[in-house]
Specification:
This protein is of the alpha/beta class. It is 48% helix and 10% strand. The protein has 17 helices and eleven strands.
């Protein structure tokens, strides 16, 4: 009987339209209050990170500093995103070797290289503006001295290698060449560190300056920074490399003497002029001997400039293994540009266009007297054989 009365009362209460609306409104109000509470709780954590970090950077306030230090780990976990690829259309020509014996006509190479460095800096500035979240991510992490350096060689393919490597989310690299260990060493390591991009835990900091390989003081200076630094050398047929080097100079100074006249001290005797930097750089065995006084061979990786063109994914695989990274850069990232004659990157993250290096890459070489080319091949052959023996790898230049 009591159960029947209770059921009857509940039925009568629920069947009333007014009371039914009151119950539904009450439920909706409770749901709305819960959602508002949840939103307020979320907003009190995430947005304040951005605001406080901004205030800390702009005003140096204690609040900003506490926020930045206290939430660094949270930021690292939330913002550890792959580095996006960006187009670079500037002229990226590597600097030339500095030797007292270089020809007088090339004495102003320093000024030419500074112009190239400016082009690189301009290319960095012309990159697309990152999104707000990307900018926030770039603000996290810390600047570290490089754990890996591409040390050479000029006109071997160092720019292509660096730009391909920058696709990897665990590699952060300086765009322009720092020239710290050859030109700017007196500025000190802190100056050098400030040039580096910020990295998160597990990311590798890199730079490339091809003139390091032929700078006598560079091995000792890098070893003084860290003997654990991994070194990468991109090598190429020294005869082709010398012609490419000359072609670059010719494009900037059309009035220079012919390649043939610069190659020989005396054309009649056939004596090669090794004081010319274009010739000297290709004596790889001589320069490598200087590096092996400070670094073991297992810390140096030699990348084939020829294979970087014919099989970029294969060479990039070796580099990723050497750096202890997962093989993320593969065949799917490349296509061969028939016009330029070298591989380019397919559509990259954040861009709808393929990416090739600038217009100065893939210059047409001048026609060189075949007799001069053969004489150079004969000159380099014993040095190449020694280099093959030192590295344990035959690059097939003969």
């Amino acid at each position: 009987m009591e159960y029947s009365l209770v059921c009857h009362s509940l039925y009568a209460f629920w069947s009333s339209p007014v009371k039914k609306k009151l119950i539904l409104l009450s439920i909706m109000f409770l749901v709305w209050v819960y959602m508002l509470y949840s939103c307020v709780g979320y907003c009190s954590t995430m947005p304040s990170l951005v605001v406080d970090s901004y205030r800390g950077k702009e005003t140096g306030s204690a609040v900003g500093k506490r926020t930045e230090s206290g939430r660094a780990d949270l930021m690292s976990r939330l913002l550890a995103k792959p580095q996006t690829w960006v187009d670079i259309e500037a002229d990226y020509d590597e600097p030339s070797i500095r030797t007292a014996a270089s020809r007088d006509l090339l004495n102003n190479e320093v000024e030419m290289d500074r112009a190239d460095d400016w082009d690189e800096m301009r290319g960095e500035q012309q990159r697309p503006e990152p999104s707000a979240m990307s900018s926030f991510s770039n603000g996290s992490g810390s600047k570290k001295l490089p754990q890996a350096i591409i040390i050479g060689v000029k006109k071997g393919g160092t720019r292509a290698l660096l730009e391909f490597l920058r696709v990897h989310p665990d590699i952060r690299a300086v765009g322009a060449e720092p020239h710290f260990f050859d030109r700017n060493y007196e500025n000190g390591l802190e100056w050098y560190r400030e040039l580096m991009p910020k990295t998160l835990e597990g990311q590798i900091t890199m730079e490339k300056t091809p003139s390091y390989f032929v700078t006598r003081e560079a091995p000792a200076r890098i070893a003084a920074m860290s003997r654990d630094t991994k070194l990468i050398v991109v090598v190429r047929d020294p005869v082709t490399r010398a012609i490419s080097d000359y072609t670059q100079t010719l494009s900037k100074k059309p009035d220079i003497p012919s390649f043939e006249s610069l190659t020989f001290k005396n054309r009649t005797t056939g004596l090669i002029d090794t004081s010319w930097s274009a010739i000297q750089i290709g004596i790889y065995a001589k320069h490598l001997d200087n590096w092996l006084q400070y670094f073991p061979m297992e810390q140096i990786l030699f990348v084939s400039g020829e294979r970087l063109i014919s099989d970029p994914a294969g060479e990039l695989g070796r580099v990723q293994d050497f750096l202890g990274l997962k093989r993320i850069i593969t065949d799917k990232h490349f296509y061969f540009n028939q016009t330029k004659g070298f591989p380019c990157l397919k559509k990259a993250e954040g861009s709808s266009k393929p990416h090739c290096l600038g217009k100065t890459k893939g210059r047409t070489h001048p026609n060189i007297d075949p007799e001069v080319v053969q004489r150079l091949r004969d000159f380099y052959r014993p040095f190449n054989m020694k280099f093959y023996q030192m590295t344990g790898h035959n690059f097939g230049w003969d």
